[in-house]
Amino acid sequence: MSAKRAHNEVERETGHGTDLWRVIAAPIIWALHFLFCYVYAAIYCEKAGRAASLDHPTLVVIIATLVALAGIGLSTHHIWGVRARSLTDNDFEFEHNTPEERHRFLSHVALMLCVLSAVAVLYVTIPMLYLSTCR
Amino acid sequence: MTDKAAEERQLARVWAPPRGWRYLTDVNNSVVGLWYIVAAFAFMLFGGALALIIRAQLAVPDNNLVSAETYNQLFTLHGTVMMFLFAVPIFEAVAILILPPMLGARDLPFPRLSAFGFWCFAIGGVFVCGSIFFNAAPDAGWFMYPPLSTEQSGIGADIWLLGLSFIEVASIAAAVELIVGVLKCRAPGMHINLTPLYGWYVLIVGAMILFAFPPLIAGDFLFELERAFNWPFFDVTRGGDPLLWQHLFWIFGHPEVYIVFLPAIALLAMIIPTFAQRPIAGYSWIVLSAIGTGFLSFGLWVHHMFTTGLPAISLGFFSAASEAVAIPTGIQLFVFIATVMLGNVVRTVPMLYCLGALATFIVGGLTGVMVAVAPFDFQVHDTYFIVAHLHYTLIGGMLFPVMAGVQYYYPFATGKMLSRTSGIWSFWLVFIGFNVAFLPMHLTGLLGMPRRVFTYGADRGWDTLNMVSTIGAFVLAAGFLLYVWDCVRPKGKEPNAPRNVWNAGTLEWLGRVPSDNWGLRSIPQINSRYPLWDDKDLLDTIDQGRGLLADAKEGRRETLVTSVLDAEPLQVLRVGTPTWLPMLAAIGLAGVFIFPVWKLWWPTLGSAIFFLAILLYWLWTGTAEIPEKQTKDIGDGRRLPLYVAGPRSTGWWAMFITMTGDLTAFLAVLFGYFFFWTIHPDFPPVGIDGPGWQWPLTAAILAIVTWGATLAARLANAAGYVTLSRALLVAAPVGAVFTGLALMAGPWTTGLDPTAHAYPAIVWGLVVWVVAHLLAGTIMQAYCLARTCFGRLTPRHDADLWNVTLYWHFTGFSALLTALVIGGFPLLQ
Prior knowledge:
The complex is a heterodimer of chains A (135) and B (829). Chain A is mainly alpha-helical and 135 residues long. Chain A has one domain. Chain A is 69% helix and 0% strand. The model of chain A is unreliable at 1-12 (pLDDT under 50). The mean pLDDT of chain B is 94. Chain B has a domain at 646-828: Four Helix Bundle (Hemerythrin (Met), subunit A), CATH 1.20.120. In chain B, helix 7 (197-229) packs antiparallel against helix 8 (242-276). In chain B, strands 1-2 form a two-stranded antiparallel ribbon. Chain B has a two-stranded antiparallel ribbon with strand order 3-4. The relative contact order of chain B is 0.10. Chains A and B meet through helix 2 and helix 4 of A and helix 9 and helix 10 of B.
């Protein structure tokens, strides 16, 4: 039983290091950022009372956002190296049966999840910039 | 060359279903999956009948068809049945049925677990549904908000809590089964980028179940402690807070909406390419947006609590995340639409349901974006606008896709075709009826009609809209009955459906008609995403038994285990055969959950012992069996091991996944502790001392020692020091017992009364949770000791010990964390 190639196969160098954990790294950063912002602001407002100003939590959330974006950026940078090759060959299907293709597929998914996570992190930060008290 | 006909006879003999009354002992995925689907649809019809009574009652103002009390039970049970007995189980049911053939596996890795899950579901479902015939059904709404549900006298709330906790066992069991199935049981060569999209969705939803259901289990645990023993977690007068329940419920409840939605549109991802006769337009985009939805859906739960008086900033975060989730959801819908546009669409009934699903879901999604905006939600909260919104999302996002899936997979499951005429009629009746029923509800809601009222005055101006909704509901019901009739009418004289009747591209369609119990004649090498389209020799290769595992020489049911990313064959897994054990275990566990409703503690204890005995017998005779030889020839010149232990085995992963869910539940209880800290100015409250730091510290040290002894037992056994390992396995349970005693000694000696205030209650809650886990851990250690003494666990065959050690990593961690929190946190205040 030989491994048949169902499509015209392009042989590529096999990359390493992209597994399922790396794929979900950026969404995990989003989740941690989201949870941190919510928990921090909720505890702050519960302890400081509803009249309290949000100046301090705003600063904390902005710092948390910068940290989260830096983390996602790091993840993106790592994957960009993999992805860059395939940007030139018009191949977005990732349907060949080789470990290299699987690697590129996961890298593509991970890269797009970085973008989505970054957008979602920014979304979560927006209300903090507009509200001024715990009311 | 071996005789191929003899191979086929042997396979047929090994996989033969049990006959006669033993039919109920079957565990094969193709049979259990069908039972599951039939049971889920039966509950769905029951829930639908309840809905029709609701609509009949609301048809005219000041109606007295049913009393207010009955009406409360009707809508509570309608919501409960549709969510817990249909929407979630139908995912498990369909996945158990179609996933193995789709992945090129003979069965799922734990067929007996599937059967166990089914029996838990069926018994629990009948119990919960049956309550309404005794006028004892839950009546506080499907999300059971305290204090209404804690203060009311009836046992309906207990039936809800215990019955549904029991059914959640089935969901967790299915999650374990399906995650391991997708990751480890794909045909050789099916790299993760070639896995059918359905597999991806199942994987993501399985993972979501692990983080979404446990908070509800934790909530149920606290709730039942309050109901049964008066521990005031949700009682404001004694330091509790009903909002804690709302948090725990919706941390489950919102992801659950996506747990329901994703597997249903996964069916669209299989059906649409088939009828567009082309591959899906953006495979990687679906995968990434499904993963993205899975994550973002956990950041939405507070949008159900916008009107509870939380600070605006909390609402802001959840409003933002609720808007963000529209991005990945939208990507998925655009991919489906693009696939339809790019292909040549074959006009069929399943496709009709797919398009109906897309149209309906988009309406529900758009109103979802509206209610995600907090000020708008303030206006329509708890009105019929919300009722309309949630039915558009659930019926468009779940019911229509599932109906499409039943139409599509009917020939696969039964070998017969459904009637096209009947299908078209039923679709238009259901589709029109649905829109006539629910579109006016947007208006009814904007006109101010609250949900859950049993009647309304004629002067309100809601009567015409309600009458229209009622007429629509009955049209919908007529269409659905036609649909059901088409499915169940006898078809004995009709010809069989042709093989691969829709000319689909994925593996589940390669089965012969009528189908073989063994699934695949032999397991092929997969080279593409749509192997039936791309590889013309595939059918012959499989049918002529030229693939892997073409024979069952040893008379055992076997399937292949492959690696996670590239699907390299790793192991021949021998799977479970028909037995009464799963059903008996489910009956025992049912007693544990059902008798406490009436506070019948002795029968509860008896059921627990019965369950434990059956479970131990099941494990002892059916798992981690030492094979008669180390490796087996699977054809193509390959030999694979028959016994694998540790992180490469399916059992280890099952334990890991189960314990991840269990840890989430523990963390949810721990969240309760810190939640109470945030709402109380003094925590622990003034005048309540305890549990002190001395006993918790002792417990922490003992927990580390016990945990270490268990790990050392595994290492010693693996190194060949069997006697030392047995000695450690004697010491470890003793250590575990003392850990539990030390943990209880803290609150006990300082006189913490759990009924006095929420603080002692949550401390005791954590302690009880951990002690129960320590108890289970001692049984596992004793089990391993017995296994090694009876020669069923050796230095080379030590899967049991690996799995028990893994359990102890989680339990040791929970015990340690509990001791640190209850002993250490009060010192920081």
